[in-house]
């Protein structure tokens, strides 16, 4: 039993927990619910503390100019959000800092996992988990197949297209889709040793499709395109692949985008139009963290929301589920056009790192691009990078990057 509680297993336990956290949260009550709700914050704080200790010991945290520029640009983005928040009286300072932390968690998890897991996790250990991952894929596939054909075991979600959305035992179809992605990432990485994993990946893509979340379906298509383009077409022009992926996303999601972003009575439409207005009014910066679009703005009564009538139940668009369920309105309104540019540059640096690995060490690059592109697609209909469901992906992306760097160092030493 000793090995089951070694540090390498703790990383995997935390990874699996982050995949299922939001579902556990929505099935618990009282003090347990509070603990689960804030558990991702605690995990990020612990990782941040360990990362700071590493820095104080003068250990390397960033690798190459790409990661360095990503950190610099994202720090500038966060600084603008805090500065603007302190300049305006839209939110209390503690909630400004809380929102800043929320917007930092995915970056913290990525770099902390990359740096702190290097001594404990290797390719052999990740491959040893493959049987368990295969079992998870089969279980989710069989349950989905059963609920589609027979009397369902679990409550289904709303009717879309030609049948109801599948969510199984998860609280929401998107949570199921994210869980499938969380199993796909290690299966994809392990394909360097186990090519048959593509069968299990296709099973999970089948499940993702029947969640009928168009951002998840688009992400699923991108996952497969990345694999086919490199392995069967031997494609080298990644810009062409991205252009095709964007076109596919627009085609797949045009109905949902039209519904959410072209109807004034929908909260997301209101958030988008108002965020542009606020960015222009507060040019060149923004309204500050905790003031608009984010969970902190909604839950902690942003004065800006109050002034703009967002809490008035008589407004058709004043639906709580939408007023903190967006991404670009958070970035554009809270940090303005300059902050938006810094955010985009930070993500671009990480994407370019993924592209570089995609060309040189395919399976590592494939995973990193899948994680980033899933969230980029999700920005059209959720809080994406800032949602707790995204954290597991960045943890595994960090682990994968760590393995690549270890291999690179070993080759240099030899």
Structural features, described:
The model has no long low-confidence stretch (mean pLDDT 86). The two termini are 35 Å apart. This protein is 71% helix and 1% strand. The radius of gyration is 21 Å and the shape is globular. With 414 residues, it is mainly α. The chain has a two-stranded antiparallel ribbon with strand order 1-2. It has 18 helices and two strands. Helix 7 runs parallel beside helix 9, helix 10 packs antiparallel against helix 17 and helix 17 runs antiparallel to helix 18.
Write the layout of secondary structure elements.
Blueprint: H1 7-25, H2 30-37, H3 39-56, H4 64-87, H5 93-116, H6 123-128, H7 130-149, E1 159-160, E2 163-164, H8 173-189, H9 197-209, H10 214-231, H11 238-261, H12 267-281, H13 295-299, H14 303-307, H15 320-323, H16 328-360, H17 362-378, H18 391-413
Antiparallel strand pairs: 1-2
Helix pairs in contact: 1-2, 1-8, 1-18, 3-5, 4-5, 4-16, 5-18, 7-8, 7-9, 8-9, 8-17, 8-18, 10-11, 10-17, 12-16, 16-17, 17-18
The low-pLDDT segments are: none
Strand content: under 5%
Structural class: mainly alpha
Widest sheet: strand ordering: 1-2
What kind of oligomer do you see? single chain
What are its keywords?
18 helices; 2 strands; two-stranded antiparallel sheet; 414 residues; mainly alpha
């Amino acid at each position: 039993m000793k090995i089951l509680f070694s540090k390498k297993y703790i990383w995997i336990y935390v990874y699996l927990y982050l995949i299922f956290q939001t579902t556990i949260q929505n099935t618990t009550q009282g003090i347990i619910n509070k603990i689960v709700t804030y558990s991702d914050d605690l995990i990020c704080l612990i990782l941040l503390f360990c990362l700071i200790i590493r820095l104080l010991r003068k250990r390397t945290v960033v690798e190459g100019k790409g990661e360095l520029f990503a950190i610099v640009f994202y720090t500038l983005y966060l600084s603008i959000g805090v500065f603007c928040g302190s300049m305006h009286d839209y939110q209390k300072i503690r909630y400004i800092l809380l929102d800043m932390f929320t917007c930092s968690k995915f970056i913290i998890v990525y770099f902390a996992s990359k740096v702190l897991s290097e001594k404990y996790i290797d390719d052999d250990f990740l491959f040893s988990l493959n049987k368990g991952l295969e079992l998870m894929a089969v279980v989710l596939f069989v349950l989905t197949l059963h609920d589609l054909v027979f009397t369902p075991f679990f409550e289904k979600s709303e009717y879309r297209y030609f049948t109801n959305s599948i969510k199984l035992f998860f609280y929401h179809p998107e949570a199921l889709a994210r869980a499938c992605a969380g199993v796909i990432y290690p299966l994809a990485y392990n394909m360097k040793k186990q090519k048959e994993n593509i069968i299990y990946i296709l099973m999970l893509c089948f499940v993702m499709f029947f969640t009928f979340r168009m951002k998840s379906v688009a992400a699923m298509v991108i996952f497969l395109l990345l694999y086919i383009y490199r392995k069967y077409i031997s494609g080298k022009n990644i810009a062409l692949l991205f252009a095709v992926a964007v076109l596919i996303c627009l085609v797949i999601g045009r109905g949902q985008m039209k519904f959410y972003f072209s109807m004034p009575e929908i909260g997301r439409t209101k958030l988008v139009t108002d965020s542009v207005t606020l960015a222009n009014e507060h040019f060149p910066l923004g309204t500050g963290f905790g003031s608009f679009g984010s969970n902190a703005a909604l839950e902690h009564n942003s004065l800006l929301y109050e002034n703009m009538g967002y809490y008035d139940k008589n407004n058709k668009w004043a639906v709580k589920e939408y007023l903190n369920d967006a991404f670009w309105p958070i970035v554009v309104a809270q940090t303005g056009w300059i902050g938006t540019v810094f955010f985009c540059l930070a993500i671009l640096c990480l994407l370019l790192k993924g592209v570089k690995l995609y060309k040189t060490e395919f399976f590592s690059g494939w995973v990193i691009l899948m994680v980033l592109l899933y969230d980029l697609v999700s920005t059209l209909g959720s809080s994406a990078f800032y949602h707790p469901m995204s954290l597991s992906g960045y943890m595994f992306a960090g682990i994968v990057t760590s393995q690549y760097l270890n291999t690179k160092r070993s080759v240099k030493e030899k």
